[in-house]
Amino acid sequence: MQRAVPAWQQALLSVVLLALLLGAWELAAGRGGGTGAAVDPEYAALLGQAAAQGGQTPFPRPSEIAARLWELLRDPFYIRGANDQGIGVQLAHSLLRVAAGFGLAALVAIPLGFLIGMSPLLSGALNPFIQVLRPVSPLAWMPLALFTIKDSAISAIFVIFICSIWPMLLNTAFGVQSVRREWLNVARTLEAGTLKTAFRVILPAAAPTILTGARISIGIAWLVIVAAEMLVGGTGIGYWVWNQWNNLSLSDIVIAILLIGIVGLLLDRLLGAVARLVAWQD
């Protein structure tokens, strides 16, 4: 049996490991030339950046990234043009797209999952379609979405819808199918109707499983939106990352990676808190 480790010890070890990582990074970047690490001229020319910084592009140190992060966070919501918007604005665009696609997926997946879970006939009929479509990469739908919808922002929302629907649909169906038969028999004994049984018995019992599917979906949706925005451009954190790569702004790319991870963590924690609240009420 392993003894429980206090949370403060775990946090302290995390801080120590982070400090060691940042320290090693700072030293390695300094030995590599700091701001003077040269780039292969042919590579720079390929990117159209041969003249940028006199042919120099360093890999940034943590201290330089921190300074740049502070600069970005001092005014994160500025808008100076279509291609010059703050990091907060870009994150907001991405979050709005994820919320729209995820919300639409929930509106479709949860009721349909209920029907599949409650009807063996419907479950057997739809299962082949689900198993064929579920493994398809969400980005594979992007060309068709752009061709039919003809709007990059709505196409990105559609891709989020596609990638979000499957975990919620399958988890909802599984949660409904896993409701204890005894509870359903009691509902029949009390002559409860189908709708009343669904809302009073099945939904509370399946809610934790449904929220688990939603938690998986939101993580996938946040992951996919970055790639989708790199393809369609315009606005969003994915477009911002690609734009900074074109400018060889490595500090901004590292900052974007950090912010993407933090936002993904917060989204996961939010749905995790909702799931714990539902489990506690049950």
TrEMBL record:
Membrane topology: Multi-pass membrane protein
Annotated ABC transmembrane type-1 domain residues: 91-271
UniProt keywords, alphabetically: Cell inner membrane, Cell membrane, Ion transport, Membrane, Transmembrane, Transmembrane helix, Transport
Coiled coil, from the record: none
Membrane-crossing segments per the record: 98-117, 153-174, 220-242, 248-267
Principal place of residence: membrane
UniProt cross-references to InterPro entries, sorted A to Z: MetI-like, MetI-like_sf, NtrB
Compartments where found: Cell inner membrane; Cell membrane
Family membership: Belongs to the binding-protein-dependent transport system permease family.
Protein name (database record): Nitrate ABC transporter permease
